[in-house]
Amino acid sequence: MSQVVTRFAPSPTGLLHLGNVRTALLNWLYARKHGGRFLLRFEDTDQDRSQQVFVAAIEADLRWLGLDWDGDALFQSQHADHHREALEQLAGQGLAYRCFCSETQLNLDRKLATSRGLPPRYSRRCRSLSDAESCQRAESEPFVWRLAAHADDGDVIVHDTLRGDVSFALRDLDDPVVVRSDASFTFLLPNAVDDALDGISHALRGDDHLSNSAYQVWMLEKLGHTPPIYLHHGLLLGQDGAKLSKRTGSHSVAELRDEGLLASALIQAMSRLGHPNIPEEAHRIESLLEHFAAESVSTSSVRWSDDEMWRWHGRLLHELDSAVLVDMIEPYLGGVAHDDLTAFASLIGKNIERAGEAAHYLRLLDTQAAWDDDALQIVQIAGADFYQQALSSWNSLDEADWKSWMNLVKESTGCKGKALFMPLRVALSGAMHGPDMSSIVNFLGKQGVMSRIEDALRQAASSTGAGQTQS
Questions:
Q1: Is residue 465 part of a domain?
Q2: In Å, how far are 383, 458, 464 from 471, measured between CA atoms?
C-alpha cells in the first residue's frame, strides 16, 4: 500500500459535535494504523458562516481529544483558483453547464415528474443551450452551474473498502448543482478537488455521502484524477433513532469537556461503535490502534449512548494517578486548603464517577463543610447519647484504630449493623457511601476523627434541644 493519507474536513460554522468526532476519529485511526498522514482541512468556502473562532475551537477540541494532525491546518478557500479551473475544464468538455431555471420552474418540473411516477430529477432543460446563448443569458439572468452527469447508459464505480465496488448507473444520477447563483460552490466540487490536490488516498465517512461519492468519482475521473478509496460506514444515530447531529441535540465537545468528561472516555466509547473487534480491556490509545480494523466497521447504523460514555469515564477515572485526579477535583472543593490533597484523591478516587462528586466528601477535608440533608437526618436519629459514647470510646484508644473503636461503640451503645455503622460513617465523611472506614480513620487521624465526632455531637444535641423546646 502506498502511503495512506486521510483527512478530517469540517466546516468552521459551528462547534465540534459527536458526529464530527466519529468522522475525525475513524480517519485518524486509519492513518495512524497504517503509518500514514492525517490532515485537517477546513471547508471554509461559505464565507458568510465560516468564522475564525470556530476554527480555533475545533483545533482546541481535536487537541484535547488527542487527534493530532500532520502539518499545518489547510483551508479550502486557499484552493479557490483550482476550483474555478476545474469548473472551466468540465465546462470545456461539455460536462458542466449553466442552468437558468427558476425555483418555481424547478418545483413545477418535480411535481410533474412525480405525477408521472418518475424520479423528481432535473429535467435538463438548460443542458441543450448553445455556448453562445448560455453566455448571452448569463449577462442578465441569474444562473447556477450543474454537472452533466446524467446519461442514458454507462455507470460509475465507487471503490469502497467496506462495501466492495458500488456501481451507479448514470441514468439514475441527476445533474447536481455545483455552483450556486451567488457564485459560491456547493460541497461536491471543492471537496473532491481538494482531496485530489491534498493527495487523499482514503476517505472514511457516513453512508449518507455514498451518492455524493458517485458524483465525485465521476467528476475526478473526468478531470484526470484518481479518486480516493472510500469507506462508507453506517450513520451515528441518537437514542431516538434519528441521525445524530448538532441540529438534533448532539453534544458539543466543548460542553462535554466543561462537564469534566475525560477525553479518553469519549474516544473509548466512540471507537467501539460498530466495531466489535476492540476488546473491553483495550484502555489505551495504543491498544485501540492495535485492534482497530477499518474493514470490520459496521455498515449498519449505530446508536450513541451517553450512559456508555460516562461508564467509560468512571472506569478510566478510577485508573488515574492520584496526582492527576487532584487537578480534576480541586475546582469542586471550594478552595479548601489541605496539606495533602493527593492522599484525599487516593482515598475517594474509586468512589466517584465524576470529578464533581468529590464535593460529597468535603467533610473529610473541612469539619465546617455543610451537612447533606440525608446525612444530617442520620446524625439526628442516632442522637447525642450515641455520639457521646462514640467520643468517649475514641478518646479511650491510644491509636486511631477503626475496628477497636467500632467494637467499643457497639458495646457501649448496644447498636449494631447499620445503626452502628452509618452514624459513624456520616459523622466522619459526611456521606452515606464511600471509602472503607478503616481508610477514612487512617486519613483523618486521631485528632481528625475526634473533631468530626464532636461536631456530630453538637448537631445531634442541637436537634434534641430544638425538639424539646417545641414540645
A1: yes
A2: 17, 20, 11
> Does residue 443 fall inside a structural domain?
yes
Q: What are phi and psi of 182, to 5 degrees?
A: -90, 10
3-state helix vs strand vs coil in the chain, percent to 5: 55, 10, 35
Residue 45 identity: T
Express each pLDDT in 181-239 by its tens digit: 999 999 999 999 999 999 999 999 999 999 999 999 999 999 999 999 999 999 999 88
- DSSP state, 371? P
Task: With respect to residue 301, please indicate whether it lies within any of the assigned structural domains.
Answer: no
Co-location of 409 and 344 in the same domain: no
Residue with grid cell 471509602, as numbered in its chain? 435
| Neighbouring-strand partners of residue 179 | 145, 185
How far is residue 162's CA from residue 152's CA, in Å, rounded to a whole number?
A: 29
Half-sphere exposure of 450 (CA within 13 A, CB side): 12
d(CA 318, CA 259): 17
Instruction: Please say if the pLDDT value at position 469 is more than 50.
Output: no
Helix (H) or strand (E) holding 203: strand 202-206
pTM of the full structure: 0.88
pLDDT band at 45 (very low <50, low <70, confident <90, very high): confident
